[in-house]
Amino acid sequence: MADRLWGEWVMGQLWLMGSAVALLAAGGAMAQTAPPSSITITGGAALTTDYRFRGLSQTDKTVAIQGTATVTHQSGLYASFWASSVDDYVANGSDAELDLIAGYKRSFSGTTIDGGVLYYVYPGNGGVNTDFFEPYVNASHTYGPLSAKIGGNFAWKQSGLGLDNDRRGGVYAYGELGLSIPRTPVTLTGHLGRSFVRNYITFGEHYTDWSVAAAYTFRSVTFGAAYVDTDTRDFSYPFGGGRNKDIAKAGIVGSVSFSF
Which long-range contacts does 189-198 make (Cβ < 8 Å, 24+ apart)? Predict the structure, then answer.
């Protein structure tokens, strides 16, 4: 009797194991034959020693935490958000910046055209209208390890860009050159930009900014260092708490980021 029960138990276990293997095999076959998804989701997070926006520190030259996520369709349409901590002088008391982005990107023969609109949101800004829209367009081309990019951001007149309760627009143009050093995970990037309109985000000035950056990528982690400078000085404000830093002055910015 015991031998018969033992045999039945063994046969039962073998049947369960066989069923599990069959299910796994069927699942693997389905995975191999399933069409690839038309949607791609990417994202990441970063820690930087200073958040510089067009050459100007948005964190009073202190550390910023940042995060992003993007949903891309195979047609070239995409939507994303990007967020960063900021100092409360940037947007009338807000401690965060949230960028909502929708655009379209297309590549052909090494050239990529990208255009869309940004919506800058500053939560907790004390009821003051500091949010604004900014359409953008850029073109880039890659030739071997070399890359070049030109672009522009153009904002119509809005209260969020105004000074002294008026409405202002914005124009920012830039160019970049990049080099991926062959057989290494190192990239170098040079940037030159110009803010042509005096508005809220330029602190009432028009000026030129530039930077030289290096990045080292290991798997999904990137370490970066950049020298950032502008042609304007004395962007110092009595922020309170004894702070009075020149947010346009040259500086070295270090960062570490993770992507998925």
Answer: 189/213, 189/214, 189/215, 193/54, 193/55, 195/54, 195/170, 195/171, 196/171, 196/172, 197/168, 197/169, 197/170, 197/171, 198/163, 198/168
Q: How far apart are CA 167 and CA 160, in angstroms?
A: 7
SS3 239: coil
Q: What is the dihedral of CA 178, 180, 185, 187, to 10 degrees?
A: -20
What distance in Å separates the CA atoms of residue 78 and residue 118, rounded to the nearest whole number?
12
**Helix, strand counts (H, E) of the chain:** 1, 14
The 10s digit of each residue's pLDDT in 53-75 is 999 999 989 999 999 999 999 99
Cα radius of gyration (the chain): 26
Interval 134-181: pLDDT, tens: 999 999 999 999 999 999 999 999 999 998 889 999 999 999 999 999
**How far apart are alpha carbons 132 and 160 in whole angstroms?**
5
Q: In whole angstroms, give the CA distance from residue 165 to residue 174.
A: 28
pLDDT over 70 at 128, yes or no: yes
CA distance 11 to 68: 53
Q: Would you state the pLDDT for residue 42? A: 97
Which residues pair with residue 44 across a beta bridge?
68, 259
**Interatomic CA distance for residues 222 and 189, integer angstroms:** 14
CA distance 163 to 159: 8
CB 176 within 8 A of CB 187: no
In contact, 68 and 35? CB cutoff 8 Å: no
Residue 56 is predicted with a pLDDT of 93
